[in-house]
Amino acid sequence: EVQLVESGGGLVQPGGSTRLSCAASGFIFSNYGMTWVRRVPEKGLERVSTIDIGGNSTTYADSVKGRFTISRDNAKSTLYLQMNSLKPEDTAEYYCRAQVAGRVYWGQGTQVTVSS
């Protein structure tokens, strides 16, 4: 059974940093690209960042480019999102997502709130 479990969210002050993790199980993590997506109330879903299987190719939404860094540790089957210079508009529920055998899987999400 594919499982994705996010952690690392919480309350962060503007300008602060935090790192999200996504622990994957139930599939060969190193064989699949991964994605971070966020849900902002009243704005819907936004694809934040993607990473290929080897971690050598990444993409970012314009809204986070230069501030967020996606990475992965295939030995630990874990995906990361380092979030720096956080802004109130980064407040959202963050999800990791994987497409395995034609099916899309989501984690349960982790809330990041950027506020003073």
Q: What would your notes on this structure say?
A:
The protein has 116 residues and is mainly beta. It contains no helices and eleven strands. Strand 4 and strand 5 form a beta hairpin. The protein is globular. The model has no long low-confidence stretch (mean pLDDT 97).
Tell me the major beta sheet.
7 strands, mixed
Which regions are unreliable across 5 or more consecutive residues at pLDDT < 50? none
Question: What is the terminal separation in angstroms?
Answer: 40 Å
Structural class assignment: mainly beta
Percentage of residues assigned to helices: under 10%
Mean pLDDT: 97
Radius of gyration: 13 Å
Query: Strand portion, in percent?
Result: over 45%
The assembly state of the depicted protein chains is: single chain
- Total number of helices: 0
**Number of E strands:** 11
Shape estimate: globular
Order of helices and strands: EEEEEEEEEEE
Layout of helices and strands:
Layout: E1 3-7, E2 10-12, E3 18-25, E4 34-40, E5 44-51, E6 58-60, E7 68-73, E8 78-83, E9 92-100, E10 103-106, E11 110-114
Parallel strand pairs: 2-11
Antiparallel strand pairs: 1-3, 3-8, 4-5, 4-9, 5-6, 7-8, 9-10, 9-11
Labels describing this entry:
116 residues; 11 strands; seven-stranded mixed beta sheet; four-stranded antiparallel beta sheet; mainly beta; 0% helix; globular
What is the gist of this entry?
With 116 residues, the protein is mainly β.
